[in-house]
Amino acid sequence: MPPFTPEDIDSVRASFPALSGDYIFFNTAAGSQVLGSVADRVRDYLITPNLVNDGYKAAADFINASPDEIVFGSSATQLLHNLSHALSFSPEDEILLCPLDHESNIAPWLALAARQNLKIRWWHPQLPPEDQPGCVNPKLDLTNPPISPKTRLICLTHTTNILGTIHDIKSLSAKIRLLNPQTLLCVDGVAHAPHRRIDVKDLGVDFYVFSWYKLFGPRISQLYAGPCARAQLQSMGHFFNPAESLDDKIGLAGGWCQELIYGIPAVVEYLTPRWEGVVDQEERLQSVLLGLLAGLDGKITIYGEWCGDAKVRVPTVSFRVRGWKSKDFVEAIERETNGRVKLSWGTYYSVRLAKEVLGLGDDGVVRVSLAHYNTGKLLR
């Protein structure tokens, strides 16, 4: 599909019942609006007997995986904790973590290291000189990951949920395979999945997690594990049950909310022909927003890439306003708009990024997180 026309945008917005009201949603990164077709399928499953659940295949196809390579759970956090209990390493092996990550891709691995006497190493970003006034843009050197012969697991976000920066996971994966083929790569794709097509085989990852409720779908999350990585997992299931698929191994016989899984094909059907338009629309939106912020005469500090290039960022834009606490600024916007404009403030479970890297306090940042169903006129 080519870039969206105004008529396309009208059609897109009509697909989301919540957008028919007066609210303006600038908080997509906390959870997107849900497609009406998803709600319809969830309802159909609950009231129609003997439906065949095609959600597993659709969810696997969506990321170019097979159904035995995925498992569902209540959240990315829960799935990564389950995964951490199924992995076993040798004492003194190393796990490489990054403070740019959401805590869901840090805490499980710290706990695993404590249980198995592993070493934690941190991959710290650099704060380069400002390439644009009023912009703080921490960056990782993905060409030179600090891997040692004892590194067994690297955990990294695909896109940070504060900075909006996209990491080149495909290139990183290739580099890891050259440096230490035994090293596993676990990627948090929660902040990335609503904005870009995911192909886990092309990326070369071992584990990949994301949440459908941030992807216009039901309140459920999904984890992928590649064949070689899955073979290394110990089963957490009952000894008498199968232990072949990822769901067998770490699904804990959850039978996860079948009606929610049944809603997933509606997301796949909606997004598959629209990805090109989604990326183009979001690039336009973030370019408009960043341009507006940059034009405020030094009153704004932007955290992350300052340009709107879709190759380097998604439309999750964080900033602080000189002379304002983030909380007070957001509350002022809510008062001025009678609660119609929904944006947010805080550290978004990325406390290490906010405090250790950016030097901020609990007040964090103001975050405007957009999706393709937003329009430029709403930003003005």
TrEMBL record:
Residues 57-375 form the Aminotransferase class V domain. It holds the Pfam family Aminotran_5. Coiled coil: none annotated. It comes from the Eukaryota. This is Cysteine desulfurase.
